[in-house]
Structure formats: C-alpha cells, structure tokens
Amino acid sequence: MCSGRSRTGRVREGMKFRLDINGLRAIAVMMVAIYHFKYQFGYGGYAGVDVFFVISGFLMNEIYNKVDPDLKSALNFYVRRLNRIYPALLVFVLATFLVLLPTLAPNALMSFAQEAASALTFSSNIFFWRSTSGYFGASADSFALLHTWSLSLEWQFYIVFPAIVFMTHRARRFFPPWGIYLALGGISFGACLILSPKFQNPAFYLLPTRAWELLLGALASALPWRNRAPRTSEVVALASIASFFFLAKDSTNWPGLATLIPTCATAVLLHANVGNEHTSLRFRPFQTIGAASYSIYLAHWPVAHILHAKQIPFSSLNAALGLGASIGIGMLSYKFVEQRFRPQPRHMVALGGAIIAALFITASIGPSKYWLPAEKVQLDSYASYSGTERNARQFGRYELACFITSSNSSAKDYDPRCINTSGRPRLLLLGDSHAAQISEAVRREFSEFSVSQATASGCLPLPETFGQKNCTDLMAHIYNDVVPAHKFDVVLIAANWQALSGMDEGLISAIEKANDIFRRSGGIVYVVGQSKVYDHALFKILQTNADPSKHELDRAAQMDRYLQSSLAGLGINYLPVYSFNCAMEFCRYTDGAGEPLMFDESHLTPSWAGVEAALIRSYVMKP
Questions:
Q1: What DSSP designation does 604 have?
Q2: Nearest in space to 122 (alpha carbons), one of 308, 348, 333
Q3: Which end of the chain is more exposed for a tag (fewer CB within 10 A), N or C?
Q4: Phi and psi, residue 429, nearest 5°
C-alpha cells in the first residue's frame, strides 16, 4: 500500500504538503499494526488498509490529472511510483528472508521464495488468494509477507488508472471525471456486494472488488464542490474511523457494506481539506509516524509473524514490544532506506530479479536440512506426498482408477473392475477423496469382504447430487446401474461433508434416500462422519510447534455434531471419527514413526488412515 509518495516526504510534487493526509497515514498504519498484534480493543484495525486505499486513490488523481494523459506521462508515473515503493520493499523482503532462514524447513523456504517472488512482482494478492483460506483465518499468520497483498493490488490499480484518466479526458464534454469515477466505482462496489458473501477470499484480495475504494479516493479529489464545513467534516470523519476501530467485532463479508464506514469517512476528510493550521492531525506524533508509515507497515507484519512462528503469546507486554520494534524499524528504514536508497529503476528491477533467483536457488538447496531437527525435516517431506506412488496406492488410483478427480476428463476414466462382486460378503466404499483416502486401509481391515470402491472428488456421494460432472456422472452410474445389479452387504459412505453441503434438511433427506436405496437390496449403510479440517496443511502447523486444535475449522466440528444428531433420530448408522486421534482430552498428531495425522488440510496419511479404518471395522463388526 502506498500513497502518492508511498507515505514518505511530501504528498505531491508541486502540491502544498497536507498535514491531515500525513496524520491520516499515521492513524491507518497504527490501526493495522494494533490489529495484527491482536489487541482486543482494536479489532476494527483491519480497516486501516481500506483507509490507505482511499488515500492512494485521492493522491493518484491529484498527481496524474496535472499532466497530459499520454503514454509518456504514464511511463513517468510508473517510474515515480516504483522509485517510491520498491527500494524499501526490496530491503524488507531480503531482511525477512535472512532472519527466517535459520528456522525455515526446506519446503517452508520454497514457500517463502514463492511469497517473495509474488511480492516483488506485485502479484502477491493473487498468490494469497490462491494460497490462503482467508485473510482473517489463523493460517494467514503463517505467511511472512502476507501484508504485501495490498501493495500488489495498488500497483495493479496504478497500471489501469492512466487508462481511466485518459477516458475521463476523452469523455469530458459529456461526463465529468467525478461521474466516471462514480460509475466505475459503483460497478466495482456492486461486484463486491455480490461476491463477498459467498466468495470472500477473491472478493477480499482481488482488484475488481476492491477498485471502488481507490476510485472513492479519486472521486473525493475530482469533486468540483467545496466543503463548506471542513472542520466539522474532519471531526465527524475521525470520529467515524475511531468508532469503527474500537467497536467493530466482526469481519464477515469484508469488504462489504460496512466497509463504507471507514472509506467514506476517509473520503470526507480528504475532500474537506481543513488546512494545515486547523487540522486536528497537525501534531508531531501524527506527523512523525505518518512520514514513516510505509516502512512501519512493511516492518510490522514480519515482526508479528515471527511472534506467531516462535509461538510467543501475544500478551500485552509482547504485543507492546512487537509494536514498538515495528515502529523503531520503520523509522530507521524511513531515514536510511526511503530517503537515501534510490537506485535507478532498471537497477532496482534487476536487483529484484536477482533476489528472486537467489531465493529459489537457496530454497532448492534447502540448507536448513543440515541444522534443523530431524523430525521437522521429516515433516517437510509431506509437502510432495500427494504426487507419490504411496499416495496413489492409498487412494486407490495406482493399479486401477477407482478414484476420479478433476484431472480426469470424464467418469469414463473410472475402471469398472473397481466394482468387485467376485464373492460374498460384499462391501462398497462410496464417496469423495475422504472415502478414497481410506480405501487401501479398508481393503486391509475388511479382508474377508469383496471390497468395491467408487470414489470421485467434486460432489456428494448421494443420489441426484450436483457438482463436477465427472463426479455426478459416476454417482449416477453407481445408483442407477451398479446398485440395482449387485447386492452389497455393507456400504460405507464417506465425504468431506462440510465442504460439499450446508447444514440443512436437503443433506439429511439425500442421505436418507441413499440409505433407503441400499436397504431395499438388503445392505446396511454406515455414514462415515465428518473428519477434522485445518486452515493450513497440518504438517506445516506442526513444524511451527503450534497447537493444531487452534487451527481446526469450526464448520467441520459443527457439521459433525449436526450429522450425528440429525441421523440418530432417523435410525441411520453414523460413525463418529472426528476425534479418533484423541483420548481423554489428549490428542496425538503424529504416530510413533513421526507420520503426521494429515498430509494437507484434511486428508489422512496412510498410517492414520489405517487407524480410522480399524475404528470403522470395530463399529461395523460390533456384535
């Protein structure tokens, strides 16, 4: 996130230095830092990023509308922005790498290299959209450069903004610039409101649903009307931002309607332009922190990340020390990097490329394996487990294609030999990847059965299901063709229920219908319960010595309780496996050989799949 001058020095060349904008930067960066150091009184601090977005949009319009909107001015605009943003970013990325290197396992080091590459190419918002379960989830703490997402989003807006200004100049006869900003911002805001409730992650990270905040700042700059009550407007705006900071307790559907509170308040303050002599933000603390706000922003998240990675509790004292360290580091960076380190743009780009290359080369060597504990390095091997032969055997897709995934073009890839009717009794394992993960273990545990497997990812393993076509086609084939032709004595239906359905009567009635279909042919159905789901790959959580229970998705536990209570009243067999790794409130996350419970967020490793399959057998074969 950066403003017209990346929160450093004067707000704009040729424009009177505005103390209110500099003070507003101080408020915004302190809001974000207080939130990330987990002070309970400032949960609404996450909106500081939104305040920065509006400031950036305002200053971009102030800067770019003073020049002719042509290719040369656009290139000059990009060069100036790069000169302001990139030096400190380069320094902080490299410094963070050097600090973390001694403790990063080889796979974690490669992950950091990917983060750094996305940060230095201004694409980290896209990277974190695809790599995190959400900005507000616990897994976000595991990414050392998460805060660079906003820098990338702003840079992407920089790329398109000259074209928007050019359009406003061409259409000036028919539409005023503020009208075009309002229209484009309205479209972006509408997309935000539509997408955020169901797709919060992309709505949060991506430009199309965030552009309205920067356009709101540009709108405040372009409005031709003067504010007739600037001091009152400033006081009301600051009170609104402060109220949100102290009173907000929920980040659901953010960005959304509630985002209008801090963003509109910021726009009102910027438009009011109360004057340097009268602004409430003219005092030295605001000005000192505001001048260094960019570097403080760059510094604060790596400090918070280190506290998280080292499992240092965010007590009042530790949070205060972390916040103080962030401000101190930011001040030093402002003085010695932002004000003094100004290489030529081509040199900066070359240096960025060299840093990216060096990080990937170092990560490919994985030097930390020579000094880290063996168990942490062993856990690191599960980063590539899904592509191994062992994984293919575990999921039933090595010799026969009994598990269909999105990589399969159609259900025709399913091997009919996966339906084994050679003898009696017969067992059918039906489901998604959560069924496939125990297929090898089920064959071993139920060796006296002829075991059939019909598994596919992307839909519920129920009649008349919906989802990925290759999955729904396979389920239709099983229920319409296989079940009427063959009798199965035992049917195990397993799925990641929480990911595929809501907790509603539709799910229960579909399970009831599946139970009736198999019962009519003499089969006994067992619904394998919802298992744990983590917000991050479990092996990575264990590598940081974090408490895995704090990273469990609440929705998975809620689904387990919902299914258990709902199916009990219908007489349908429900096999609770959610806490099979726990006994007497003590939970194990690795076995005696050091194999973790899961190799990603929700899928069991072979040894633990065997434990679950043995538990399932104890339920099914109970006298």
A1: B
A2: 348
A3: C
A4: -100, 115
Count CB neighbours of 260 within 10 A. Answer: 16
DSSP, residue by residue, 83-100: HHHHHHHHHHHHHHHHHH
- Beta carbons of 400 and 415 less than 8 angstroms apart: yes
Edge-to-edge order in the sheet of strand 403-404: 403-404, 450-456, 426-431, 490-494, 524-528, 573-575
Measured in degrees and rounded to the nearest 5, phi and psi for residue 473 equal -65, -40
The residues, ordered by sequence, that sit 6+ positions from 342 with a Cβ below 8 Å of its Cβ are 83, 87
Q: Give the three-class secondary structure for 512.
A: helix
Q: What percent of the chain has pLDDT over 90?
A: 71
Indicate whether 172 pLDDT > 90. no
Among 290, 319, 314, 379, CA closest to 104: 379
Specify which residues 598 forms β-bridges with: 604
pLDDT of residue 536: 80
Residues ≥6 apart with Cβ < 8 Å to 485? none
Three-state DSSP state, 255: coil
pTM score, whole prediction: 0.75
Tokens of 457: 């990812």
Rounded to 5 degrees, φ, ψ at 524 are: -110, 125
- What confidence tens digit (pLDDT) does each residue in 311-357 have? 788 889 999 999 999 999 999 999 999 998 888 888 999 999 999 99
Residue from 113, 172, 111 nearest 142 by CA = 111
Answer whether 496's CB lies under 8 Å from 602's CB: yes
Distances (CA, A) of 247 to 209, 241, 250, 264, 436: 25, 10, 9, 17, 46
Q: 71-112 pLDDT, tens per residue?
A: 777 788 888 889 889 999 999 999 999 999 998 888 889 989
Give residue-wise pLDDT tens across range 214-246. 999 999 999 999 999 999 999 999 999 999 999
- In this prediction, residue 181 carries a pLDDT of 95
